[in-house]
């Protein structure tokens, strides 16, 4: 019995290493293109689908079917929470930024400019309030669907395949930390070449990604589906990159508190991550 379990663990680690090696090989040319050539959305989209391709190739090499991945939709409760939680932590992040004076609410002029960028002119008499009323629901639905087309590529690999292999050899805590660390490290070329403060952003980014990993791992295992992670990732990207920053004006000297790599976002997501970690331990996940 012990030898069987030992062989299973060795096979799991073999699969994990193979998957990570293929992911690195597929991703590297696109990381190079973004850093050395041009940061095109085409390259970014290609990178985000590399984990999925790596998972498919790994499954093929190991003799498993792609249909073995957790494609089922799962319980709608987890889908709803996958939308709600990242929207909430993004809003809380910026509310704290406004409350503590680390940034200000956008002025009417800034909001109207946001409306122009979104192409909302021509919809009657446009006002700042109307821009917000139209923009947030549109971005929170249509843009989330568009974003999910790329986050699907990441989540097929990271949550649909990778964490299930890790679960064979690690606890929930180990899976969340290890997969989060790898997921964060996978972004390192972009952090190095597009950061104003590499050390600070490395710390905040790894904190954010590992915290998100605890939440996404929880919902993936609870739902036995990869779709909550796909939606969670897409909603998080849209709210923290395209909605809340547009409603905020940064203050000189406080920029490092704002944004998807900001200190405030790291603090808020870590609190959410700890909550889900404790909940998973309580449920003996």
Account of the protein in words:
The protein has helices spanning 2-37, 41-62, 76-99, 108-117, 128-166, 172-185, 188-193, 198-223, 227-243, 263-282, and strands spanning 103-105, 248-250. The protein has 285 residues and is mainly α. The two termini are 24 Å apart. The mean pLDDT is 92.
Index terms:
2 strands, mainly alpha, 285 residues
* Rg estimate, integer Å: 20 Å
Shape: globular
Number of strands: 2
**Number of helical segments with 4 or more residues:** 10
Biggest sheet strand line-up: 1-2
Helix content: over 70%
Quick summary:
With 285 residues, this protein is mostly helical. The protein is built from 10 helices and 2 strands.
How would you summarize the topology of this molecule?
Blueprint: H1 2-37, H2 41-62, H3 76-99, E1 103-105, H4 108-117, H5 128-166, H6 172-185, H7 188-193, H8 198-223, H9 227-243, E2 248-250, H10 263-282
Antiparallel strand pairs: 1-2
């Amino acid at each position: 019995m012990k030898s069987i379990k030992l062989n299973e663990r060795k096979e799991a680690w073999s699969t994990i290493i193979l998957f990570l090696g293929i992911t690195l090989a597929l991703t590297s040319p696109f990381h190079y293109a973004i850093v050395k050539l041009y940061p095109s959305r085409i390259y970014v989209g290609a990178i985000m689908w590399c984990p999925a391709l790596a998972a498919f190739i790994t499954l093929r090499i190991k003799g498993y079917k792609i249909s073995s991945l957790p494609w089922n939709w799962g319980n709608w409760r987890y889908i709803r929470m996958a939308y709600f939680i990242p929207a909430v932590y993004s809003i809380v992040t910026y509310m704290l930024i406004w409350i503590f004076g680390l940034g200000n609410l956008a002025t009417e002029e800034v909001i109207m400019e946001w409306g122009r960028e979104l192409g909302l002119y021509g919809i009657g008499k446009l006002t700042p309030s109307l821009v917000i009323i139209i923009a947030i629901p549109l971005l929170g639905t249509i843009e989330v669907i568009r974003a999910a087309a790329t986050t699907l590529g990441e989540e097929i690999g990271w949550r649909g395949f990778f964490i299930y292999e890790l679960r064979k050899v690690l606890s929930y805590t180990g899976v969340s930390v290890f997969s989060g660390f790898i997921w964060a490290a996978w972004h390192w070329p972009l952090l190095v070449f597009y950061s104003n403060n590499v050390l600070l952003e490395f710390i905040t980014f790894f904190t954010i990604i590992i915290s998100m990993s605890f939440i996404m791992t929880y919902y993936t295992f609870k739902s036995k589906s990869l779709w909550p992670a796909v939606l969670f990732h897409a909603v998080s990207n849209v709210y923290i990159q395209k909605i809340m920053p547009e409603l905020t004006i940064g203050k000189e000297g406080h920029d490092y508190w704002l944004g998807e790599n900001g200190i405030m976002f790291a603090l808020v997501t870590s609190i959410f991550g700890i909550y889900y970690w404790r909940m998973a331990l309580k449920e003996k996940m």
